[in-house]
């Protein structure tokens, strides 16, 4: 859809189109890396608050990419505006996560089929019970097919979307791990709930950047530029 004349307090495209499929890294510099290295005919559509956004083509298909920042509140704002103001239909978060399983290692790729959370984001929907937060099966199925074709092994399962990065409870992650949670990140739950309410598709693709129990981690530069396999999978999901 055309974004001409549309803007929000956080996204100002100045008439540049935002594609119906968008990749959403947390780091805006990862968005720039994707635009510079994977897309053709690139035009920048956002720089408000330093949250860089670009639209271009990948294998002839239009696609956008934009940073979302860190945490529930940030991705909650950006995904809501992209869906409800700019008409985005497919939102693919490509982020980093901390492993909490012994057999899930640095650089492994995870598809978040479900999103457990300690956030209270769902309270706004006034639901008469607990909501099961899940990915779009349509996007999940497509992404798994792409990964298989590329020969990229992936883990599919439940992840934790936490509002807390520095947790005062040192036992929290151990308890999530015992429930089979693969890894921890901070955005999938809000993204999935916003998409579900609006009837659009969302998927969270993660690369393991650190291991919480083994105290292993990648560098900031690696997180920005080296997680290319998940980028390649996500780019193939353009309509």
From TrEMBL:
<feature type="binding site" description="in other chain">
    <location>
        <position position="26"/>
    </location>
    <ligand>
        <name>phosphate</name>
    </ligand>
</feature>
<feature type="binding site" description="in other chain">
    <location>
        <begin position="93"/>
        <end position="96"/>
    </location>
    <ligand>
        <name>phosphate</name>
    </ligand>
</feature>
<feature type="domain" description="Nucleoside phosphorylase">
    <location>
        <begin position="22"/>
        <end position="228"/>
    </location>
</feature>
<dbReference type="GO" id="GO:0004731">
    <property type="term" value="F:purine-nucleoside phosphorylase activity"/>
</dbReference>
<protein>
    <recommendedName>
        <fullName>Purine nucleoside phosphorylase DeoD-type</fullName>
        <ecNumber>2.4.2.1</ecNumber>
    </recommendedName>
</protein>
<keyword id="KW-0328">Glycosyltransferase</keyword>
<feature type="active site" description="Proton donor">
    <location>
        <position position="210"/>
    </location>
</feature>
<dbReference type="GO" id="GO:0004850">
    <property type="term" value="F:uridine phosphorylase activity"/>
</dbReference>
<feature type="binding site">
    <location>
        <position position="10"/>
    </location>
    <ligand>
        <name>a purine D-ribonucleoside</name>
    </ligand>
</feature>
<comment type="function">
    <text>Catalyzes the reversible phosphorolytic breakdown of the N-glycosidic bond in the beta-(deoxy)ribonucleoside molecules, with the formation of the corresponding free purine bases and pentose-1-phosphate.</text>
</comment>
<comment type="subunit">
    <text>Homohexamer; trimer of homodimers.</text>
</comment>
<keyword id="KW-0808">Transferase</keyword>
<feature type="binding site" description="in other chain">
    <location>
        <position position="30"/>
    </location>
    <ligand>
        <name>phosphate</name>
    </ligand>
</feature>
<dbReference type="GO" id="GO:0009164">
    <property type="term" value="P:nucleoside catabolic process"/>
</dbReference>
<dbReference type="Pfam" id="PF01048">
    <property type="entry name" value="PNP_UDP_1"/>
</dbReference>
<dbReference type="InterPro" id="IPR035994">
    <property type="entry name" value="Nucleoside_phosphorylase_sf"/>
</dbReference>
<dbReference type="GO" id="GO:0005829">
    <property type="term" value="C:cytosol"/>
</dbReference>
<dbReference type="InterPro" id="IPR000845">
    <property type="entry name" value="Nucleoside_phosphorylase_d"/>
</dbReference>
<feature type="site" description="Important for catalytic activity">
    <location>
        <position position="223"/>
    </location>
</feature>
<feature type="binding site" description="in other chain">
    <location>
        <begin position="185"/>
        <end position="187"/>
    </location>
    <ligand>
        <name>a purine D-ribonucleoside</name>
    </ligand>
</feature>
<feature type="binding site">
    <location>
        <position position="49"/>
    </location>
    <ligand>
        <name>phosphate</name>
    </ligand>
</feature>
<dbReference type="InterPro" id="IPR018016">
    <property type="entry name" value="Nucleoside_phosphorylase_CS"/>
</dbReference>
<dbReference type="InterPro" id="IPR004402">
    <property type="entry name" value="DeoD-type"/>
</dbReference>
<dbReference type="GO" id="GO:0042278">
    <property type="term" value="P:purine nucleoside metabolic process"/>
</dbReference>
<comment type="similarity">
    <text>Belongs to the PNP/UDP phosphorylase family.</text>
</comment>
<feature type="binding site" description="in other chain">
    <location>
        <begin position="209"/>
        <end position="210"/>
    </location>
    <ligand>
        <name>a purine D-ribonucleoside</name>
    </ligand>
</feature>
